[in-house]
Amino acid sequence: MSSRTSYALAVGLLLLAAVLRMWTLSALPPGLHDEEITDIRVAETARQGIIEVFYDLGGGEGRESLYHILLAAITSFTGRGLLGYQIVSVWAGLLTLALLYVLAARLFGPLAGVSALALLVVNLWTTLLSRSIGREMLLPLLVTGILLTLARVFGVFRRVRPHPPPTTPFAALGLLLGLGFYVHPVHFLLVLASMAFIVYMVRARRRVSRRALGYLGFSLLVMIIFATPYLISSLRLPQLSGAGRLLGDYTIPQNPPLRAIGESLSGLFFSGDSDPAHNLPGRPLFDLVSGALLLVGALVALRNWRQPRYFLPVIFTLVLSPAAILALNTPDFRAMTGLLPPLALFFGLGVSTLYYSLPAASRRLMAAGLVALLAFNLLWLGRDLFQFWPNLEAVQTVYHSRIGQLARYLDTTADDLPTLICDTPATPGAGLSSTDLLLLMMNRKQAPLRYADCGTGLVLMDGGARQQIVFADPQMLHGMHPYLRRWIEYGVLLDQPGLPASAVVEINVERELADTIGRFITTAPVGYAPEAPGASGAATAPIRFGGNITFLGYEREPTEMYVPGGILTFITYWRADGPIPPNLRLFTHVLSDPASIAAQTDTISVNVGSLHNRDVLIQVTFVPLPTSIPGGIYNVSIGAYDATNNVRMGVLDDEQQRGTRLFVGQISVARR
Description:
Elements: H1 3-22, H2 34-47, E1 54-58, E2 61-64, H3 66-78, H4 82-108, H5 110-121, H6 124-131, H7 138-154, H8 167-179, H9 187-203, H10 210-236, H11 242-245, H12 257-269, H13 288-303, H14 308-325, H15 340-357, H16 360-391, H17 393-398, H18 401-413, E3 419-422, H19 434-441, E4 449-452, E5 457-460, E6 467-471, H20 476-479, H21 482-488, E7 492-493, E8 504-507, H22 510-523, E9 526-528, E10 538-539, E11 543-545, E12 549-556, E13 561-562, E14 567-576, E15 584-593, E16 596-603, E17 616-624, E18 632-642, E19 647-648, E20 651-653, E21 656-657, E22 662-669
Parallel strand pairs: 3-4, 3-6, 13-22
Antiparallel strand pairs: 1-2, 5-17, 6-8, 7-8, 9-10, 9-22, 11-12, 11-20, 12-14, 14-17, 15-16, 15-18, 18-19, 18-22, 20-21
Helix pairs in contact: 1-4, 1-5, 1-6, 2-3, 3-4, 4-5, 4-6, 4-7, 4-15, 5-15, 7-8, 7-9, 8-10, 9-14, 13-14, 13-15, 14-15, 18-19
């Protein structure tokens, strides 16, 4: 195969790789899995200017920082949505493929370069890597870069140039070996493999010149300079260091070495990784024919190990293998990621060796077979990647696909249709809520969304005009207070392709809301507090408060009689008339006399900072009555205050303040 032909084929394969990695990128994978969420959160920490060598994830787990710093920097331009985070991996994956072609072609010839490239272009795991968010995507790029610079430094290409190499490859080698520490713990093995190859070259029969040795010293100096902060941090925080995490999860009783080796080899050609985040469970990393060609190449390389260009992939495979074999759960494709470039080199070498060992008449037949093998793997990849894998229930669970579908839906609708996100706030220390995940996956970060815990609160936007209500948590629709659910029943539950069940309701209740508020004039009497300037007396809703909120009226349970230990349920309506204090709280007091509080609840069920003018908040408040409360008649008062300074909002009457609370009826408590 001529170089011109191989270049043309390589360009075509790279274009195919770009299509496979970018086709429906925003929808496949269907969301984010927990490891990706962790990497994004670390990247957001870096974006805030908090730069660490290791980021502490808790529980003694650390994570190197270079990938996350790069992710934060690049997504400042590409956008911080799901697509912006993924495109970094797409670029890294395509660059890895391009460098792999150059490396394989220069080591073993043009046919080997095209073959090695083709193997990874149509490989499911490498394709998923390029669509995922995670530092593992940088490992194949790092390994390929180090292999290429080592080959360039020592001139071990198939056609050796007569003049000595320039200093640039030596500087690049030192830079890669130094920065790699900040990518992944596997880099310790990469440095070990590089040192082993350097020793091999120095001791080879073809002695390395003094000039080249001097350049190697320069490479090591560059590596040490870049690795010094890592070393210092490792000494200061040994529990977070990559050296301790490299094989820290492996235990011999749980996975004996011989069994681990067998399972890893089986994962390459037979059983595959069972983790749905990494693979279609049961699918091997390579098909059997490709596996056979790979083994041929490995045997050829072992047989010719005295030649540096063959020894280079051999030593890297041997040194990197423990990280893959001694993983916690084998076979583990993520642990095998660093082995992908040398395995692809063996495949290219195997194809090239067999092809050129055949008589000229048989080469066309083998070429046709290789094209058929590529077509088979392409169809296999397309079927599994776009049909079977994303539809697995396990995949949809680990990738939070419901949230991913809602994020894509909101990216296209939230700018045109007012949207309320209903969800239960996350418990402190319990991780991200469904709404947090939704915002993480959305590409349109500036969409004008409102947020509420719809179990006890609801926002009717723009006076009840047309809006959509999104239930990030599938249980929220059924967990709403019955009073609030009656408003939802005025709407239509959307059922369309790409939307999960019970996820979006579209409502338009402008007329019903106006009728309800109008009814409060006669059914919900309101009075000013006794201490209010101008004395107590009847007040007529709507009643303005300070802080740009207006009280519209209230509803309460039909019963007038309560018992000690019971719960008073009180429902109030409020309207936003401008910017509202972000820490606003609404209080409901049960009063034994105008100055004595017998029971109270302070609450708010919406993110008031997201409210716009004319948005109406319906707040359901539960006030537990003490078991020791005496029987009698109790007044109920309501109001609002800023939790930042505990200053109550004034009640306004024609711009004059009339106290800081309103009286809204009475309840009776009877002891049994």
